[in-house]
Amino acid sequence: MRTEADKIQNFIDGQFIEPVGGKYLDNIEPATGKSYSQVADSDSRDVDLAVVAAEKAFVDWSCTPAAERSKILLRIADLIERDLEKFARAESIDTGKPLSLARTLDIPRAVANFRFFATAILHTESEAHITDNVAFNYTTRQPRGIAGLISPWNLPLYLLSWKIAPAIAVGNIAIAKPSELTPVTAYMLCEIAQEAGLPNGVLNVVHGTGPNVGAAITAHPKINTISFTGGTVTGRKVAEACAPLFKKVSLELGGKNPNIVFADADLEAAIAGSVRSSFANQGQICLCGSRVFVERSAYKDFVDRFTEKASKLKVGDPLDEKTEQGAIVNKTQLDKIKFYVDLAQEEGGKIALGGKAPKPINDRCRYGYFFPPTIITDLPVSCRTNREEIFGPVITITPFDNEEEVIGYANDTDYGLASSVWTQNLNRAHRVAEQIHTGTVWVNCWLVRDLRVPFGGMKASGVGREGGEEALRFFTEAKNICIAK
Ligand code: NAD
Predict the structure, then answer these.
(1) How far is CA 213 from CA 149, 216, 279, 313, in A?
(2) Which one from 91, 180, 242, 286 is the annotated catalytic residue?
(3) How do 440-443 and 394-400 pair as beta strands?
(4) What is the CATH number of domain 7-253+461-484?
(5) Taking burial as the number of CB atoms within 10 A of a residue's CB, which of 193, 312, 366, 465 is the most buried?
Protein backbone atom coordinates (compact mmCIF):
# COMPACT_ATOMS: atom_id res chain seq x y z
CA MET A 1 0.00 0.00 0.00
CA ARG A 2 1.23 3.46 -0.88
CA THR A 3 1.09 6.09 1.84
CA GLU A 4 2.42 9.03 -0.12
CA ALA A 5 0.65 8.42 -3.39
CA ASP A 6 2.10 10.27 -6.39
CA LYS A 7 -1.25 10.70 -8.03
CA ILE A 8 -4.37 10.66 -5.95
CA GLN A 9 -7.13 9.56 -8.29
CA ASN A 10 -10.85 9.41 -7.80
CA PHE A 11 -12.42 6.20 -6.55
CA ILE A 12 -15.61 5.48 -8.45
CA ASP A 13 -17.45 2.18 -8.80
CA GLY A 14 -14.64 0.38 -6.99
CA GLN A 15 -11.92 1.64 -9.38
CA PHE A 16 -9.25 4.28 -9.11
CA ILE A 17 -9.74 6.47 -12.15
CA GLU A 18 -8.41 9.66 -13.69
CA PRO A 19 -10.58 12.76 -13.38
CA VAL A 20 -12.52 13.31 -16.64
CA GLY A 21 -10.77 16.61 -17.28
CA GLY A 22 -7.36 14.99 -16.69
CA LYS A 23 -6.31 17.81 -14.34
CA TYR A 24 -4.48 17.56 -11.02
CA LEU A 25 -3.67 19.94 -8.19
CA ASP A 26 -0.41 20.05 -6.28
CA ASN A 27 -0.66 18.51 -2.83
CA ILE A 28 1.60 20.53 -0.55
CA GLU A 29 3.21 19.17 2.61
CA PRO A 30 2.64 21.89 5.24
CA ALA A 31 5.87 21.15 7.10
CA THR A 32 8.03 21.75 4.02
CA GLY A 33 5.87 24.01 1.86
CA LYS A 34 6.64 21.70 -1.07
CA SER A 35 4.40 19.67 -3.33
CA TYR A 36 4.77 15.96 -2.65
CA SER A 37 1.89 14.46 -4.61
CA GLN A 38 -0.89 15.36 -7.02
CA VAL A 39 -4.59 15.25 -6.31
CA ALA A 40 -7.37 14.95 -8.89
CA ASP A 41 -8.87 18.33 -9.79
CA SER A 42 -12.29 16.93 -10.62
CA ASP A 43 -15.50 18.65 -11.66
CA SER A 44 -19.20 18.01 -12.11
CA ARG A 45 -18.52 15.34 -14.76
CA ASP A 46 -16.75 13.21 -12.16
CA VAL A 47 -19.61 13.72 -9.72
CA ASP A 48 -22.00 12.58 -12.47
CA LEU A 49 -19.98 9.39 -12.91
CA ALA A 50 -20.06 8.77 -9.18
CA VAL A 51 -23.85 9.21 -9.17
CA VAL A 52 -24.26 6.65 -11.95
CA ALA A 53 -22.16 4.16 -9.96
CA ALA A 54 -24.06 5.03 -6.78
CA GLU A 55 -27.49 4.44 -8.30
CA LYS A 56 -26.38 1.04 -9.50
CA ALA A 57 -24.82 0.06 -6.17
CA PHE A 58 -27.81 1.24 -4.13
CA VAL A 59 -30.05 -1.48 -5.54
CA ASP A 60 -28.18 -4.29 -3.76
CA TRP A 61 -26.53 -2.45 -0.89
CA SER A 62 -29.80 -1.02 0.42
CA CYS A 63 -31.17 -4.59 0.65
CA THR A 64 -28.02 -6.18 2.08
CA PRO A 65 -28.81 -7.50 5.58
CA ALA A 66 -27.53 -5.34 8.42
CA ALA A 67 -25.39 -8.21 9.71
CA GLU A 68 -23.57 -8.39 6.37
CA ARG A 69 -23.02 -4.63 6.20
CA SER A 70 -21.81 -4.74 9.77
CA LYS A 71 -19.21 -7.40 9.00
CA ILE A 72 -17.75 -5.37 6.14
CA LEU A 73 -17.54 -2.21 8.25
CA LEU A 74 -15.85 -4.14 11.04
CA ARG A 75 -13.33 -5.42 8.53
CA ILE A 76 -12.66 -1.86 7.39
CA ALA A 77 -12.02 -0.90 11.03
CA ASP A 78 -9.66 -3.84 11.51
CA LEU A 79 -7.70 -3.03 8.38
CA ILE A 80 -7.26 0.65 9.26
CA GLU A 81 -6.07 -0.51 12.67
CA ARG A 82 -3.66 -2.96 11.06
CA ASP A 83 -2.22 -0.06 9.03
CA LEU A 84 -2.51 2.49 11.83
CA GLU A 85 1.11 3.54 11.64
CA LYS A 86 0.97 4.08 7.86
CA PHE A 87 -2.25 6.06 8.17
CA ALA A 88 -0.83 8.16 11.00
CA ARG A 89 2.32 8.97 9.06
CA ALA A 90 0.36 9.83 5.93
CA GLU A 91 -1.98 12.07 7.89
CA SER A 92 0.90 13.79 9.66
CA ILE A 93 2.61 14.54 6.33
CA ASP A 94 -0.64 15.66 4.69
CA THR A 95 -1.88 17.93 7.50
CA GLY A 96 1.27 19.02 9.34
CA LYS A 97 -0.02 17.64 12.65
CA PRO A 98 2.37 15.86 14.99
CA LEU A 99 2.70 12.18 14.14
CA SER A 100 1.96 11.37 17.79
CA LEU A 101 -1.40 13.14 17.56
CA ALA A 102 -2.39 11.40 14.33
CA ARG A 103 -1.42 8.09 15.94
CA THR A 104 -3.32 8.61 19.17
CA LEU A 105 -6.33 10.69 18.12
CA ASP A 106 -7.29 10.86 14.46
CA ILE A 107 -6.68 7.35 13.27
CA PRO A 108 -7.91 5.46 16.37
CA ARG A 109 -11.05 7.58 16.32
CA ALA A 110 -11.60 6.73 12.65
CA VAL A 111 -11.34 3.05 13.60
CA ALA A 112 -13.79 3.64 16.44
CA ASN A 113 -16.24 5.35 14.08
CA PHE A 114 -16.43 2.31 11.81
CA ARG A 115 -16.72 -0.10 14.75
CA PHE A 116 -19.36 1.98 16.47
CA PHE A 117 -21.72 2.24 13.49
CA ALA A 118 -21.02 -1.34 12.40
CA THR A 119 -22.38 -2.56 15.71
CA ALA A 120 -24.98 0.19 16.27
CA ILE A 121 -27.03 -1.05 13.31
CA LEU A 122 -27.36 -4.43 14.99
CA HIS A 123 -29.04 -2.94 18.04
CA THR A 124 -31.64 -0.51 16.75
CA GLU A 125 -35.17 -0.72 18.07
CA SER A 126 -38.29 -0.66 15.94
CA GLU A 127 -41.21 1.55 16.89
CA ALA A 128 -44.88 0.61 16.95
CA HIS A 129 -47.88 2.57 18.23
CA ILE A 130 -51.36 1.30 18.86
CA THR A 131 -54.01 3.95 18.20
CA ASP A 132 -56.82 2.87 20.57
CA ASN A 133 -59.11 0.46 18.74
CA VAL A 134 -58.56 2.22 15.48
CA ALA A 135 -55.19 1.30 14.05
CA PHE A 136 -51.79 -0.18 14.48
CA ASN A 137 -48.82 1.97 13.36
CA TYR A 138 -45.30 0.85 12.79
CA THR A 139 -42.33 2.88 11.63
CA THR A 140 -39.77 1.74 9.15
CA ARG A 141 -36.45 3.51 8.61
CA GLN A 142 -35.11 3.14 5.12
CA PRO A 143 -31.81 4.32 3.68
CA ARG A 144 -32.30 7.63 1.89
CA GLY A 145 -30.23 6.91 -1.21
CA ILE A 146 -27.08 8.82 -2.15
CA ALA A 147 -25.33 10.87 0.52
CA GLY A 148 -22.88 13.65 -0.34
CA LEU A 149 -20.26 13.86 2.41
CA ILE A 150 -18.03 16.92 2.43
CA SER A 151 -15.27 17.32 4.99
CA PRO A 152 -12.49 19.74 6.01
CA TRP A 153 -8.72 19.38 6.36
CA ASN A 154 -8.14 19.51 10.09
CA LEU A 155 -9.07 15.92 11.06
CA PRO A 156 -9.39 14.39 7.61
CA LEU A 157 -9.90 10.68 8.21
CA TYR A 158 -11.63 11.07 11.54
CA LEU A 159 -14.28 13.47 10.21
CA LEU A 160 -14.80 11.71 6.90
CA SER A 161 -15.22 8.33 8.59
CA TRP A 162 -17.69 9.95 11.02
CA LYS A 163 -19.89 10.53 7.97
CA ILE A 164 -19.08 7.55 5.74
CA ALA A 165 -19.56 4.94 8.48
CA PRO A 166 -23.16 5.82 9.48
CA ALA A 167 -24.18 6.61 5.89
CA ILE A 168 -23.20 3.23 4.46
CA ALA A 169 -23.96 1.31 7.65
CA VAL A 170 -27.67 1.99 7.21
CA GLY A 171 -27.61 1.14 3.51
CA ASN A 172 -26.90 4.41 1.73
CA ILE A 173 -24.29 5.06 -0.92
CA ALA A 174 -21.56 7.57 -0.11
CA ILE A 175 -20.10 10.12 -2.47
CA ALA A 176 -17.38 11.69 -0.37
CA LYS A 177 -15.33 14.78 -1.02
CA PRO A 178 -12.36 15.24 1.30
CA SER A 179 -10.65 18.59 1.51
CA GLU A 180 -8.39 19.17 -1.48
CA LEU A 181 -5.70 20.16 1.04
CA THR A 182 -5.59 16.76 2.77
CA PRO A 183 -6.71 13.98 0.42
CA VAL A 184 -4.28 11.15 1.20
CA THR A 185 -5.99 9.23 3.99
CA ALA A 186 -9.30 9.21 2.07
CA TYR A 187 -7.39 7.67 -0.82
CA MET A 188 -5.93 5.04 1.50
CA LEU A 189 -9.38 4.35 2.92
CA CYS A 190 -10.58 3.43 -0.59
CA GLU A 191 -7.81 0.83 -0.85
CA ILE A 192 -8.93 -0.54 2.51
CA ALA A 193 -12.58 -0.60 1.42
CA GLN A 194 -11.62 -2.70 -1.62
CA GLU A 195 -9.64 -5.10 0.54
CA ALA A 196 -12.49 -5.37 3.04
CA GLY A 197 -14.87 -6.45 0.29
CA LEU A 198 -17.10 -3.39 0.23
CA PRO A 199 -19.12 -3.83 -2.98
CA ASN A 200 -18.16 -1.58 -5.88
CA GLY A 201 -19.88 1.78 -5.92
CA VAL A 202 -20.90 1.84 -2.25
CA LEU A 203 -18.11 4.27 -1.39
CA ASN A 204 -17.09 6.78 -4.05
CA VAL A 205 -14.54 9.51 -3.44
CA VAL A 206 -14.31 12.48 -5.79
CA HIS A 207 -11.33 14.74 -5.13
CA GLY A 208 -11.08 18.40 -5.99
CA THR A 209 -11.94 21.90 -4.90
CA GLY A 210 -15.07 23.10 -3.15
CA PRO A 211 -16.34 25.26 -6.01
CA ASN A 212 -15.81 22.47 -8.57
CA VAL A 213 -16.67 19.27 -6.70
CA GLY A 214 -18.36 20.33 -3.45
CA ALA A 215 -20.77 22.63 -5.28
CA ALA A 216 -21.48 19.92 -7.90
CA ILE A 217 -22.38 17.51 -5.09
CA THR A 218 -24.70 19.95 -3.32
CA ALA A 219 -26.35 20.88 -6.65
CA HIS A 220 -26.84 17.34 -7.92
CA PRO A 221 -30.55 16.47 -7.86
CA LYS A 222 -29.92 12.77 -7.23
CA ILE A 223 -27.80 13.33 -4.12
CA ASN A 224 -30.59 13.86 -1.63
CA THR A 225 -28.63 13.94 1.64
CA ILE A 226 -25.74 16.25 2.45
CA SER A 227 -23.53 16.04 5.50
CA PHE A 228 -21.10 18.94 5.55
CA THR A 229 -18.34 19.87 7.98
CA GLY A 230 -16.37 23.03 7.36
CA GLY A 231 -16.42 26.79 7.79
CA THR A 232 -19.55 28.83 8.45
CA VAL A 233 -19.24 30.87 5.24
CA THR A 234 -19.06 27.68 3.16
CA GLY A 235 -21.87 26.16 5.22
CA ARG A 236 -24.13 29.03 4.21
CA LYS A 237 -23.40 28.32 0.52
CA VAL A 238 -24.14 24.65 1.05
CA ALA A 239 -27.45 25.51 2.75
CA GLU A 240 -28.38 27.86 -0.10
CA ALA A 241 -27.63 25.21 -2.72
CA CYS A 242 -29.58 22.50 -0.90
CA ALA A 243 -32.69 24.44 0.13
CA PRO A 244 -34.39 24.69 -3.28
CA LEU A 245 -33.82 20.97 -3.85
CA PHE A 246 -35.26 20.06 -0.40
CA LYS A 247 -32.20 18.05 0.53
CA LYS A 248 -31.75 16.77 4.04
CA VAL A 249 -28.74 18.66 5.37
CA SER A 250 -26.47 18.50 8.37
CA LEU A 251 -24.03 21.38 8.85
CA GLU A 252 -21.13 21.17 11.30
CA LEU A 253 -19.50 24.59 11.17
CA GLY A 254 -17.01 26.88 12.90
CA GLY A 255 -16.60 27.81 16.54
CA LYS A 256 -15.24 30.42 18.92
CA ASN A 257 -15.45 28.32 22.00
CA PRO A 258 -15.34 29.67 25.55
CA ASN A 259 -13.19 27.95 28.14
CA ILE A 260 -14.25 29.13 31.60
CA VAL A 261 -12.07 28.69 34.66
CA PHE A 262 -13.54 29.45 38.09
CA ALA A 263 -11.26 30.20 41.02
CA ASP A 264 -12.55 27.08 42.82
CA ALA A 265 -11.30 24.82 40.02
CA ASP A 266 -8.48 22.34 40.42
CA LEU A 267 -6.11 24.83 38.80
CA GLU A 268 -3.46 22.27 37.94
CA ALA A 269 -6.01 20.24 35.97
CA ALA A 270 -7.57 23.37 34.48
CA ILE A 271 -4.19 24.62 33.26
CA ALA A 272 -3.20 21.28 31.75
CA GLY A 273 -6.64 20.89 30.16
CA SER A 274 -6.60 24.45 28.84
CA VAL A 275 -3.16 24.10 27.27
CA ARG A 276 -4.51 21.09 25.42
CA SER A 277 -7.82 22.65 24.45
CA SER A 278 -6.06 25.83 23.28
CA PHE A 279 -3.24 24.36 21.24
CA ALA A 280 -3.96 20.75 20.25
CA ASN A 281 -3.39 20.32 16.53
CA GLN A 282 -2.00 23.90 16.51
CA GLY A 283 -5.46 25.13 17.58
CA GLN A 284 -6.94 23.74 14.38
CA ILE A 285 -9.74 21.74 15.97
CA CYS A 286 -13.20 23.24 15.69
CA LEU A 287 -13.67 22.43 19.39
CA CYS A 288 -10.55 24.24 20.64
CA GLY A 289 -11.28 26.71 23.41
CA SER A 290 -9.95 29.88 21.84
CA ARG A 291 -11.47 32.29 24.39
CA VAL A 292 -10.28 31.59 27.92
CA PHE A 293 -12.11 33.34 30.78
CA VAL A 294 -10.61 33.18 34.26
CA GLU A 295 -12.19 34.36 37.51
CA ARG A 296 -10.31 37.46 38.63
CA SER A 297 -9.01 36.11 41.94
CA ALA A 298 -7.21 33.29 40.08
CA TYR A 299 -6.41 35.29 36.94
CA LYS A 300 -2.78 36.24 37.55
CA ASP A 301 -1.79 32.84 38.88
CA PHE A 302 -3.54 31.13 35.96
CA VAL A 303 -1.99 33.38 33.29
CA ASP A 304 1.52 32.91 34.72
CA ARG A 305 1.30 29.14 35.01
CA PHE A 306 -0.63 28.63 31.78
CA THR A 307 1.87 30.77 29.84
CA GLU A 308 4.78 28.92 31.38
CA LYS A 309 3.30 25.53 30.45
CA ALA A 310 2.37 26.61 26.91
CA SER A 311 5.87 28.03 26.37
CA LYS A 312 7.26 24.52 26.85
CA LEU A 313 5.26 22.99 24.00
CA LYS A 314 7.78 21.82 21.46
CA VAL A 315 7.18 23.27 18.01
CA GLY A 316 8.90 21.01 15.50
CA ASP A 317 8.92 18.75 12.49
CA PRO A 318 5.60 16.87 12.65
CA LEU A 319 7.43 13.61 11.97
CA ASP A 320 9.71 14.09 14.99
CA GLU A 321 8.34 11.96 17.85
CA LYS A 322 9.00 14.74 20.37
CA THR A 323 7.05 17.40 18.48
CA GLU A 324 3.94 18.70 20.23
CA GLN A 325 3.11 21.53 17.81
CA GLY A 326 3.41 20.82 14.10
CA ALA A 327 2.77 22.94 11.04
CA ILE A 328 -0.22 25.07 10.05
CA VAL A 329 -2.07 23.49 7.14
CA ASN A 330 -1.17 26.00 4.41
CA LYS A 331 0.08 29.50 3.70
CA THR A 332 -3.41 30.98 3.50
CA GLN A 333 -4.19 29.75 7.00
CA LEU A 334 -0.81 30.95 8.29
CA ASP A 335 -1.44 34.41 6.81
CA LYS A 336 -4.87 34.46 8.42
CA ILE A 337 -3.30 33.71 11.81
CA LYS A 338 -0.73 36.48 11.38
CA PHE A 339 -3.49 38.88 10.35
CA TYR A 340 -5.40 38.19 13.57
CA VAL A 341 -2.31 38.55 15.76
CA ASP A 342 -1.71 42.01 14.20
CA LEU A 343 -5.38 42.88 14.58
CA ALA A 344 -5.35 41.82 18.24
CA GLN A 345 -2.53 44.28 18.92
CA GLU A 346 -4.35 47.06 17.07
CA GLU A 347 -7.36 46.29 19.26
CA GLY A 348 -5.25 46.82 22.38
CA GLY A 349 -4.17 43.24 23.12
CA LYS A 350 -0.86 42.34 24.72
CA ILE A 351 1.10 39.31 23.57
CA ALA A 352 1.92 37.19 26.63
CA LEU A 353 3.47 34.41 24.55
CA GLY A 354 4.41 33.78 20.92
CA GLY A 355 3.06 36.13 18.28
CA LYS A 356 5.81 35.65 15.69
CA ALA A 357 6.70 32.84 13.31
CA PRO A 358 9.62 30.84 14.75
CA LYS A 359 13.08 30.48 13.21
CA PRO A 360 13.39 27.58 10.73
CA ILE A 361 12.71 24.33 12.59
CA ASN A 362 15.30 22.33 10.67
CA ASP A 363 16.56 22.06 7.13
CA ARG A 364 13.69 19.88 5.92
CA CYS A 365 11.11 22.30 7.32
CA ARG A 366 12.86 25.53 6.25
CA TYR A 367 9.89 26.64 4.11
CA GLY A 368 7.15 25.10 6.23
CA TYR A 369 4.19 26.95 7.74
CA PHE A 370 4.86 27.19 11.47
CA PHE A 371 3.43 29.44 14.16
CA PRO A 372 4.00 29.06 17.91
CA PRO A 373 1.40 28.93 20.69
CA THR A 374 0.26 32.53 21.15
CA ILE A 375 -1.51 34.01 24.16
CA ILE A 376 -3.15 37.44 24.05
CA THR A 377 -4.41 39.33 27.09
CA ASP A 378 -6.07 42.68 27.80
CA LEU A 379 -8.57 42.61 24.95
CA PRO A 380 -12.15 43.79 25.22
CA VAL A 381 -14.58 40.85 25.06
CA SER A 382 -16.48 42.21 22.10
CA CYS A 383 -13.51 42.95 19.79
CA ARG A 384 -13.08 41.13 16.48
CA THR A 385 -10.23 38.96 17.80
CA ASN A 386 -12.62 37.67 20.44
CA ARG A 387 -15.52 37.13 18.07
CA GLU A 388 -14.11 35.73 14.82
CA GLU A 389 -12.78 32.22 14.33
CA ILE A 390 -8.99 32.26 13.85
CA PHE A 391 -8.46 28.48 13.70
CA GLY A 392 -4.84 28.50 14.80
CA PRO A 393 -2.69 28.42 17.96
CA VAL A 394 -3.89 31.85 19.11
CA ILE A 395 -6.05 32.31 22.19
CA THR A 396 -7.20 35.22 24.32
CA ILE A 397 -7.49 35.31 28.13
CA THR A 398 -9.92 37.62 29.88
CA PRO A 399 -10.74 38.00 33.60
CA PHE A 400 -14.30 37.94 34.94
CA ASP A 401 -15.91 38.76 38.30
CA ASN A 402 -18.97 36.55 38.57
CA GLU A 403 -21.03 33.80 36.98
CA GLU A 404 -23.56 36.04 35.34
CA GLU A 405 -20.86 38.12 33.71
CA VAL A 406 -18.96 35.14 32.30
CA ILE A 407 -22.10 33.50 30.94
CA GLY A 408 -22.74 36.76 29.09
CA TYR A 409 -19.18 36.72 27.76
CA ALA A 410 -19.42 33.08 26.72
CA ASN A 411 -22.62 33.69 24.77
CA ASP A 412 -21.44 36.95 23.21
CA THR A 413 -20.55 35.38 19.86
CA ASP A 414 -22.38 34.24 16.75
CA TYR A 415 -20.98 30.74 17.29
CA GLY A 416 -22.20 28.01 19.62
CA LEU A 417 -20.21 24.85 19.10
CA ALA A 418 -18.60 23.77 22.38
CA SER A 419 -17.42 25.09 25.73
CA SER A 420 -15.54 24.00 28.82
CA VAL A 421 -16.19 24.87 32.45
CA TRP A 422 -13.64 24.24 35.18
CA THR A 423 -15.02 24.26 38.73
CA GLN A 424 -15.26 21.93 41.72
CA ASN A 425 -18.67 23.27 42.65
CA LEU A 426 -21.15 20.76 41.23
CA ASN A 427 -24.16 23.07 41.49
CA ARG A 428 -22.32 25.79 39.65
CA ALA A 429 -21.21 23.34 36.97
CA HIS A 430 -24.82 22.38 36.22
CA ARG A 431 -26.10 25.95 36.46
CA VAL A 432 -23.50 27.40 34.12
CA ALA A 433 -23.64 24.50 31.66
CA GLU A 434 -27.41 24.95 31.34
CA GLN A 435 -27.01 28.59 30.38
CA ILE A 436 -24.23 28.40 27.82
CA HIS A 437 -25.46 28.31 24.24
CA THR A 438 -23.24 25.57 22.83
CA GLY A 439 -24.01 22.07 21.56
CA THR A 440 -21.49 20.52 23.96
CA VAL A 441 -20.38 21.67 27.42
CA TRP A 442 -17.41 19.86 28.92
CA VAL A 443 -17.05 20.14 32.69
CA ASN A 444 -13.51 19.61 34.01
CA CYS A 445 -12.47 17.98 30.74
CA TRP A 446 -12.17 18.59 27.01
CA LEU A 447 -12.60 16.52 23.86
CA VAL A 448 -13.96 13.51 25.71
CA ARG A 449 -16.13 11.72 23.18
CA ASP A 450 -18.80 9.11 23.61
CA LEU A 451 -20.00 8.21 20.14
CA ARG A 452 -23.56 7.75 21.41
CA VAL A 453 -24.08 11.39 22.36
CA PRO A 454 -25.51 13.99 19.98
CA PHE A 455 -22.80 16.19 18.52
CA GLY A 456 -23.23 19.53 16.80
CA GLY A 457 -23.44 23.27 17.16
CA MET A 458 -25.94 25.99 17.93
CA LYS A 459 -26.29 29.36 16.15
CA ALA A 460 -23.69 29.86 13.37
CA SER A 461 -21.92 26.65 14.40
CA GLY A 462 -24.37 24.50 12.56
CA VAL A 463 -27.69 22.80 12.05
CA GLY A 464 -28.47 19.24 13.00
CA ARG A 465 -26.72 16.71 15.18
CA GLU A 466 -24.39 13.87 14.34
CA GLY A 467 -23.37 10.89 16.44
CA GLY A 468 -25.14 7.75 17.63
CA GLU A 469 -28.87 7.56 17.16
CA GLU A 470 -28.92 11.06 15.61
CA ALA A 471 -26.70 9.91 12.73
CA LEU A 472 -28.71 6.74 12.15
CA ARG A 473 -31.84 8.84 11.95
CA PHE A 474 -30.25 11.49 9.76
CA PHE A 475 -29.23 8.95 7.15
CA THR A 476 -32.59 7.18 7.09
CA GLU A 477 -36.10 8.15 6.09
CA ALA A 478 -38.84 7.33 8.56
CA LYS A 479 -42.05 5.95 7.15
CA ASN A 480 -45.17 5.22 9.14
CA ILE A 481 -47.37 2.36 8.07
CA CYS A 482 -50.83 2.61 9.56
CA ILE A 483 -53.02 -0.49 9.49
CA ALA A 484 -56.64 -0.22 10.46
CA LYS A 485 -57.68 -2.63 13.19
P1 NAD B 1 -14.05 24.99 4.30
O2 NAD B 1 -15.44 25.43 4.58
O3 NAD B 1 -13.17 25.90 3.53
O4 NAD B 1 -14.04 23.62 3.48
C5 NAD B 1 -14.70 22.47 3.95
C6 NAD B 1 -15.00 21.57 2.77
O7 NAD B 1 -15.97 22.22 1.95
C8 NAD B 1 -13.79 21.29 1.86
O9 NAD B 1 -13.86 19.97 1.42
C10 NAD B 1 -14.01 22.27 0.73
O11 NAD B 1 -13.38 21.89 -0.47
C12 NAD B 1 -15.52 22.24 0.60
N13 NAD B 1 -16.12 23.41 -0.06
C14 NAD B 1 -15.60 24.65 -0.25
N15 NAD B 1 -16.48 25.41 -0.93
C16 NAD B 1 -17.58 24.66 -1.17
C17 NAD B 1 -18.83 24.89 -1.80
N18 NAD B 1 -19.13 26.07 -2.36
N19 NAD B 1 -19.73 23.90 -1.82
C20 NAD B 1 -19.47 22.70 -1.26
N21 NAD B 1 -18.29 22.41 -0.65
C22 NAD B 1 -17.37 23.38 -0.59
O23 NAD B 1 -13.42 24.61 5.70
P24 NAD B 1 -11.93 24.18 6.00
O25 NAD B 1 -11.07 25.40 5.92
O26 NAD B 1 -11.59 22.98 5.21
O27 NAD B 1 -12.06 23.70 7.52
C28 NAD B 1 -11.98 24.55 8.61
C29 NAD B 1 -13.35 24.91 9.12
O30 NAD B 1 -14.07 23.72 9.44
C31 NAD B 1 -13.30 25.71 10.41
O32 NAD B 1 -14.25 26.74 10.33
C33 NAD B 1 -13.69 24.71 11.47
O34 NAD B 1 -14.27 25.26 12.62
C35 NAD B 1 -14.67 23.87 10.73
N36 NAD B 1 -14.82 22.55 11.35
C37 NAD B 1 -15.99 22.29 12.00
C38 NAD B 1 -16.15 21.06 12.65
C39 NAD B 1 -17.43 20.73 13.38
O40 NAD B 1 -17.61 19.57 13.73
N41 NAD B 1 -18.30 21.68 13.64
C42 NAD B 1 -15.13 20.12 12.60
C43 NAD B 1 -13.95 20.44 11.93
C44 NAD B 1 -13.81 21.66 11.30
Answers:
(1) 11, 5, 31, 38
(2) 286
(3) unpaired
(4) 3.40.605.10
(5) 193
Rounded distance, CA 253 to CA 109, Å? 20
> Over the stretch 390-426, which tens digit does the pLDDT of each residue have?
999 999 999 999 999 999 999 999 999 999 999 999 9
How do residues 355-379 score in pLDDT, each as one tens digit?
A: 999 998 899 999 999 999 999 999 9
Could you state, in order of their start, the residue ranges of all structural domains in the chain? 7-253+461-484, 258-450
Of all protein residues, whose CA lies closest to atom 20 belonging to ligand 1? 214
Domains 7-253+461-484 and 258-450 share a fold: no
Let me know if 4 is a catalytic residue: no
Closest CA to 27 of 37, 42, 19, 18: 37
Maximum CA extent, the chain: 80
Average pLDDT, integer, range 139-162:
98
Is the pLDDT confidence value at 4 over 80? no
Residues 24 and 38: their CA atoms lie apart, in Å, by: 6
Q: Does position 252 have pLDDT exceeding 50, yes or no? A: yes
Q: How far is the CA of 251 from the centre of ligand 1 (A)?
A: 10
Whether residue 201 has its Cβ less than 6 Å from ligand 1: no
* CATH number of the 258-450 domain: 3.40.309.10
**Known active-site residue 286:** yes
To test the pocket of ligand 1, the residue of 234, 249, 329 to mutate (highest count of ligand atoms within 8 Å of its CB) is: 234
CA 178 to ligand 1 center in whole angstroms: 10
Task: Flag whether pLDDT at 1 surpasses 80.
Answer: no
Rounded to two decimals, the pTM is 0.97
How close is the Cα of 425 to the center of ligand 1, in Å?
37
Distance CA 173, CA 205 (A): 11
Site to probe by mutation for ligand 1, drawn from 161, 229, 419 as the one with most ligand atoms within 8 Å of Cβ, is 229
Check pLDDT > 50 for residue 158.
yes
Give the whole-angstrom CA distance, residue 113 versus residue 467. 9
pLDDT band at 2 (very low <50, low <70, confident <90, very high): very low
**Dihedral, CA atoms, 50, 52, 53, 54, nearest 10 degrees?**
80
Confidence of residue 5 (pLDDT cuts 50, 70, 90): low
Candidate list 29, 91, 180, 252, residue with the active-site label: 252
Residue 336 Cβ inside 6 Å of ligand 1? The answer reads no
Q: From ligand 1's centre to the CA of 153, what distance in Å?
A: 8
